[in-house]
Protein 1
Amino acid sequence: MAVKVLHLGSQKRYETYDPHTPFSDAAEKIYIPMNAPLEEILAAGSDADYIIADAVTYVPAALVEQMPHLKMIHSEGVAFNSFAWREAAQRGVYVCNCKGANAAAVAEQAVFLMLACLRNAGEGDRAVREGRQIEVKERMMVEGFAELGDCTVGLVGFGAIAKETAKRLAAFDCRVVYYARHQASPEEESLCHATYLPLDELLAQSDIVSLHVPVTEETTGMADERFFEAMKNTAWLINTARGEIVDNDALAAAITGGKIAGAGIDTLAPEPVQADHPLVNLPAPYCDRVFFSPHIGGVTSTMFKKAHRNIWANIERMERGERPENICNGL
């Protein structure tokens, strides 16, 4: 009997990146929009064996508890903090992710945001469209701006994405430092051209601070008032990790108060971003000190192809009686 797989998210995207192996083609698939009502999900897929969920969708404990055949919840990306992973563990249900699949893509986005901030990309684009190119160019030449290679870049966290970011920064001749709970081996540091520093020293020395930690109880809101006070007032914050890591009000105050230069942000909390969010409502001229991208760092087509191959390989492993890879809930 074919396995039954419940997809929570975009049907079009799932169908686009389905690896179409004999195993995946034989599976029974149900598609439910992200964050659909619990009743709708249960009516369609309460007897499913597996859930594949958009990384930012909500998978509540009530859903896990009412799916008697459920074996695994698999994130389509890396995040899983909106899944009821503790409750899943209590019921013997694995929660897995696609760790590493988006590392190269997010690393590219981090470097892009660094360059966009240093070169004031948002205001520059607008100035050309409004016929103010020479005005902005003259001002930037007088004020001056750094090349990326002039900068010390501090990576907070040193997982797969941070390591890929460090490797790319080496091509710009940056000095790269990192902080993590556990220092990497000398071989890893050499490969990534990165040096360990305690967090306070990293913040004090870095011209760019780039966040690369997961959302946990420890990291939620870690970029707070004290964090920004420890940074250089000429430094930039880059966030391609998760919005929950940053205290939005503290970051807005740090920018308007001149505590830091500004920020390049791919992900904000809450998502979707609301019109009254403090960081999208900064007054002039501070509004030009923040450059946004719409949480696209890890959603390249290459990433999704890797992720969906990984997901279906994990389902096949379980059907063979093997443990899946990239278990996130401690089972």
Protein 2
Amino acid sequence: MFNYFLGLFSNDLAIDLGTASTLIYVKGKGIVTNEPSVVAVKKDGRGGKRVLAVGRDAKAMLGKTPGNIAAIRPLKDGVIADFEITEEMLKYFITKVHNRRFLVRPRIIIGIPSGITQVEMRAVKESAYSAGAGEVYLIEEPMAAAIGAGLPITEPSANMIVDIGGGTSEIAVISLAGIVRSKSIRIGGDKLDEAIVQYIKRKYNLSIGISTAEKVKIEFGLAMPEEENRTMEIKGSNFVTGIPTTIEITAGEIREAMNEPIGALIEAIKQVLETTPPELAADMVERGIVLAGGGALIKNLDVILREETRLPVTIADDPLTCVVKGAGKVLDEVKLLREVTVSN
């Protein structure tokens, strides 16, 4: 009886707990939260921490805080790097979604990278329970992304999804509601930003922030030959003089900067294709590859993957929300929930 009573006060949630952003879907309402996975904490003299801000407010502080305040990204490469701060972040988002209602113990489904360990899975579950969840289910991100992208995952045919997030890229071939082949690599938007930072440092002796690198990546993407001479001004600090400096960079240079991580992504996709059973591989000649996640929006990435794989490559509608929408759909279908969630 108590469980029934409690259920009246619950709202089921689907959470895409990403390295870069956290998205929350509420059953019956859709996506209600899409904020950066960043927490700002203030340290006291005794080694304790107090949360100052979460999400957008905390991200605005990245790289700009005094010594006693730190803006932390508690997830690294798609997994929890700081358990305590992740718990605080989840608690904040869940409370915000439920407007601080009493007796809320929601049923929660969370997207996880397909390559994470049992220990990392338990850390995700424990964080959610500590943050106030009543029940916690886990779904592999490529499966959630495929469902969110509208792929017919329960059919006996190949559905290939490449979900490029902030910390990881998930590549999977799905058939009959199961993952047939998959690969998770710790390359995503963050690695591309870091590659740009390092390239500018090596070539121009200039230190730029991650936010600047991200802006350049979004502006230029992977430039085609006819676009390589487009230019953009960026500001940073000169390593030799320490003086703030402005330089002009080209789209061609940014493509060169991202060559290595993009090459690793292409190689991983080819490895999954090579190990896919022939019958399913034949399906992909027609169906091709669907791109999801924030990385799907990198200009010309779909064009380059098409050239490299000789397969059709399409970008999912609203690729940023595929994982959370897919996880949300699973909440509504009990049979599918049993089929696609993972246990540890």
